Amino acid sequence: MRPLFLSMSAFGPFATTQTIDFTALGNNPLFLINGPTGAGKTTLLDGICFALYGKTTGNEREGSQMRCDMADDGVLTEVVFSFQLGAARYRIRRVPEQERSKKSGEGSTQQKSEAQLYRIDADGSEQLLVATKVSEATNAIETLTGLDVEQFRQVMVLPQGKFRELLMADSKAREQIFSQLFQTHIYRRIEDKLKDQASQIRALVKEQRARRDGILQNCALQNDEELNAQLAALTPELTLAQQAKEQAVWQQQQAHKAYDAAQHLQDEFAQLEALKQALSILESQQGSMAAKTEELHLAKQAERLGPMVAHLRAREQEAKDAEDKLSHAVTRFTQTQQTYDEAQLKAKDIPELESSLQAQEGIKIQLTELGPRLSELERLTQRVQQEQAQLLTVKAQCERDKAALTALSQQRKDAELSLVTLQAKGDMRLPLQQTYLQQQQLLAAYEQWQQVVAKVEATKTQLAQAAGVGQQLKLQYQEAQQAYQSLLLVWHQGQAAILAQQLRQGAPCPVCGSLSHPQPAQSVQTLPSDEALQLAQEAQNRAQEQLSSARAEYRGLQTHVTTLQQQADDCAVALGDAAKLSLVDHQQALSQAAVALQQAEQAYQQQLQLQGEIAKLQLQAEEWQLQLESLQLQSSGLQSSVDLLGGQLAQLQQGIPQELGSLAALGTAQTQNDLQLAQFKQQIAQLRSHSQLAAEAFATAKAALEAATASKHAAAEQQTLAQHQLEEQLAGAGFADQASLLKAMRDEAHRQQLASAIEHYEQQRALTQAQSEQLSAKLKDKTVPDMLMLADALQLTQLALDSAEEAWQTRHTRMALLTQTHSQLQLADAKAHSLEEQYAVIGTLADVASGNTGNKISLQRFVLSVLLDDVLLEASRRLHLMSKGRYRLLRKEDRAKGNKASGLELEVEDAYTAKVRPVATLSGGESFMAALSMALGLSDVVQAYAGGIKLDTLFIDEGFGSLDQESLEMAIRTLMDLQSSGRMIGVISHVSEMKEQITTRIDIAKASHGSQIALVLP
Question: With b meaning 16 or more CB within 10 Å and e meaning fewer, what string describes 337-369?
Fold first, then answer.
C-alpha cells in the first residue's frame, strides 16, 4: 500500500483542515516527520490508521476522542485518505461520533460515525463501494489490504512504544500475521479437511461396531460361537422337515389329480346336453335358410343383367343431353342473327365518318403553321413581364430599405434599454448556481434515505416470510422425528417377536430364564429393515439441517433489518428538517432553482448578444443606405427597357387571330383537333370490327344448330336399340318385367352376407351333429362322478401339507435369519477392516497436519516456519550491519512446554558471547534495531512471493533516540538503501542528526490556535 493524499479536519491538534500530498514528496521517498512534542507528529499515523480501520495506532484513544478542542463548532471532524494498492487507487472518508451544530436552528446534535469508500478509475471518476456503514468499510479495507488493524500496526506502522510487539509476539500471534501476509490459509484448510475426514472415519468405525452388536442382538445371540452352534444343530432338523414337506406335497398332488379328472368327466356330460339343445335349434331354422337361398339365386341372375341395365340408362342420359344441346343451339342462333343484322345497319355510317376525318386533318396543318409566330410573341411578352416585375421589385425594395433604416434606429434604442435590464438579471447567475447545487445534493441525500427506507420494508417482508418458512420446516422436522421414533419403536418391538420364535416349551427363556412361555411376543407390524431405519434417520437429519439453515437465515435477516434501520436513521439525522418534506417538494424546489438559474443564464447570454447586436445595427444601417442609392439608379434603367419592348410586342401581335393569341391557346386547339381525329379513327375501326365479329358469330351458331339436330336423332336411335335388347333378356332370366329385375338386385356386400349366412348355418349344423354323436359314443359306458367325496379327500391332504409346511417354515426362517446374520457379520467385519486401514492413513496425516505429534507443529505453522526462516535471513542481514556484526535473529526449533503452540518463536544469536538467548533480553536500542530489521525483512520476503501482499510503505515512530551515534548512522544508511529499492519510509524522530541527513520533511508547527502542516522539499 502506498499513501497518496491525507486530509484531516478538527482531528487531534489540527483545528482546521490540514492536507498532505504524499505524491509531492517524490518517488519512493525517505522523509522525516518533524516537530516539537505535542505538535501532532504521531497524529499523522493515527489519521492514516483511523481512516483505514477506525482506530488509532496506539489504540489508546477512540475516534470520538480525537476531536480538536480548538476547532470551530461548524467544522466537522473527519479524515480523508487516498492510497494505492498495486495499479488500483482508493479513497476512504471517516467521520467519528461527535457533537456538531445543527444545520438549521440553534443548539447541537449528535453526529453518528460514518465511512465512505471509493475506487478511483483511470479517468479520475470515482465509484462508491461503501456508502455509510462503518463496519462494511472496515471489512472492505481488511479484504483489500489483507491485514486487520493489529497486523497493520505490527508490519506497516511501528508506533511509539509498540515496535517490539512483532518482535516479541508468540507463535500463535505470529502465525495469524504471517498467514494473512503470505496467504497460507490453504494449509489450514488442508488441516481442517484431514481432521474432518479422520473424525468421520472414527465415527464410522464406532457405528460399524455398534451395528455388529445390533446384528447379534436381532437374533438374540451373544457371540459368533453361539451363532455357529445354532447353525450346526438346526441343519438336520431342517432336512427332516424338508422330507416330510415333500411327502405331503406328493399326496396332495395325487388327490388333486383325481379331483381334476372327475371334474373333467362331469364337464363332458354337461357339454353333451348343450350340444343336443343346439342341434334342435339349428333344425328349426331350415325354412328361413331356404328363403335366403332363393333370394341369393335371383340376386345372382339380376347381377348378370346389370351391365345391360346400365347401358340403357347411359343411352337415356345421352338422349336427354342431346335435347338440351339442341335447345341451347336454337337460342344462340337466334341471338347471333339479330346481332348480325344490327351490325350491317351501323356499317352504312362509315363513308360519312371518313369525310369528317379528312376535314380535321386540314385544320391540323393550319394550326402547325401558327406555332413559330406565337413562340416569338410569348417570348417577348414574358420578357416585358419580367422587366416590369423587376422594376416593381426594385421600387418596393427602395421603400423597404427606407423603412428599415428607420426601424434600425428604433431597434438600437430599444436594445440599449434592454441591456440595462439584463445586466441586473445576469448578475444573479453565480448565487443561483450555488443554490441549485445545494438543492441537488439535498435531493440526492433524500432519495438515498427513501431507498434505505424501502429496503427496510422489503427486508421486513422477507423476515416475515422467513418466519413462516421456519414454522413449516419446524413442523416437517417434528414429523420426520416422530416417523423415525415410531419406526425405531417398531424395530425394537420386532426384536422381541424374533426372539419369541426361538422359544421352546421346557427350554429356558434367554431373557427371564422361565421354562414356560404362556404368551410369547408377536409382531403385529412388519419389521422394518436396517435400510428403512437408516433412511428415516437421514430424513430426520435433513429436516433438522434445513430447520437450522432457516433459523440462521432468519437471524441474518434480523441483523440486516437492524443495520438498514440504523442507516435510515443516520440518513434522516443528516437530512434534518428536510426529511419531513416529500420527494415531490424536493423535486419542485430543485425544479424552481433550475428554472431560476436557467433564466439568469439566459439573461446573461442575452446581455452578451445585445452588446454585439447594437454594434451590428450601426454597421447594417450604413450598408442599407448605400444599397438604397444603388437601387434608385437600377430603377431608372429598367423603366427605359420596358418602354422599348412594348413597341416590339405591338408589331408582332398584328395578323394573329384573337382566340389564338398565345401558345397555350394554340396548344389547346391542337389538342382538341388531335382528339377529334383519334375519335373519328376509333369509331371507324370499331364499326368495321363489330360487323366482322357479328358475321363470324352468326356462321358459327348456324353450324352448331345443324350439328345439335343430327346428334339428337342419333341418341334417340341408340336409346331405342338398348331398350329392345334388355327386354329380350328378361324372360330368359326368370323376370316378368324390368321392375321385377330391379327389385331382385342386391349389392355385392348383401350377396356376400347371404352366402356367408347360408354357409355358416350348414357348417354349424354339420359340426354340432358330429360333436354330439362323437361325445355320446365316448360317454356310453360312464356315469356322473361324486364330486363332494373327492373334495373332502382333497381337503384332508391340504391340511396335512399345511402342517408340514408350517413345521418346515419355522426351521427355515430361523436358518435364513442365522445365515443372513452370518453374512451381515462378515460384511461388517470387512467394512470395519477397510475403515481401520483408511484411518491408519488419514488419521496419521490428520495428526501430523494438526501438530498432534511429538514436535507440536501444524502443517500451516511448518510452512510459515520456512517463510519465517527467509524473513529472518533478510532481517539478520540488516541487523548484522546495524549491530556491527554482533546479532543475528534465529527461529527457535525446540518444542514449547506443555500444549503451547511452538515453531515460530524467535531467538537472537550473540556473536560476542557465542550464545543464543531470547529476544526479550535485548536492550531498548537493540530491540529497536531488531524490530526495524524484522519489519524490513518481512517487507522484502512478502513481496518476493507471488500473490503476497505488497508492503511498500513503512512508518517508524521514534525509537532512534535509543541508538548510539554509530548505530544511528547505520540505521539511517539502511533506510536510505531501502528507499533506493522502491520503498516509501516515513520517520518520526527528535534526533537532530535525522533532520540533518533527511532533507525531505513534513514539518508540523505547534500553535495556540492549532497545529499547521507544511512540506519541506530539497
Answer: eebbeebeeeeeeeeeeeeebeebeeeeeebee
Of 109, 25, 100, nearest to 67 (Cα)?
100
Long-range Cβ pairs for the range 288-293 (8 Å, 24+):
289/757, 289/758, 289/761, 292/754, 292/757, 292/758, 293/758
For the beta carbon of residue 19, count every other beta carbon within 10 angstroms: 12
Buried b (16+ CB within 10 A) or exposed e, 255-281: beeebeebeeeeeeeeeeeebeebbee
1-156+951-1018: CATH topology is Rossmann fold (3.40.50)
Cell of 540: 430426520
- The Cα 706–Cα 700 span in angstroms is 10
- Per DSSP, the three-state class of 134 is helix
What does the pLDDT look like over 62-94, one tens digit per residue?
777 888 888 888 889 999 999 998 789 999 999
Percent of the chain with pLDDT over 90: 5
How confident is the model over 579-588, as pLDDT tens digits? Answer: 667 666 766 7
- Residues 888, 869 contacting (CB under 8 angstroms): no
Is 163-197+858-948 a domain of CATH 3.40.50.300? yes
d(CA 6, CA 951): 19
Contact (CB, 8 A) for 77 and 51: no
Among 866, 825, 844, 968, smallest CA distance to 209 is for 825
pLDDT band at 682 (very low <50, low <70, confident <90, very high): confident
pTM higher than the cut 0.70: no
Cα angle, residue 948 at apex, residues 944 and 950 outer, rounded to 5°:
80
Residues 45/957, Cβ–Cβ less than 8 Å: yes
Looking at residue 493, its pLDDT comes to 60
Q: Which of 210, 206, 156, 215 is nearest to 181 (CA)?
A: 156
**CB-facing half-sphere around the CA of 429: CA atoms within 13 A:** 16
| Residues 94, 62: Cα–Cα separation, whole Å | 13
Cell numbers 443372513 label which residue?
A: 820
Is residue 230 within 8 Å of residue 520, measured between CB atoms?
no
| Range with lowest mean pLDDT among 71-80, 718-727, 885-894 | 718-727
- Residue 105 is given by DSSP the state S
How far is 216 from 224, CA to CA, in rounded Å? 8
Which of 936, 992, 932 minimizes the C-alpha distance to 961? 992
State the Cα torsion 787-791-797-801 to the nearest 10°. Answer: 140
Q: Which residue has the cell 393569341?
A: 661
- 3-state DSSP call for residue 917? strand
DSSP 815-850: HHHHHHHHHHHHHHHHHHHHHHHHHHHHHHHHHHHH
C-alpha to C-alpha distance for 496 and 730, rounded to whole angstroms = 101
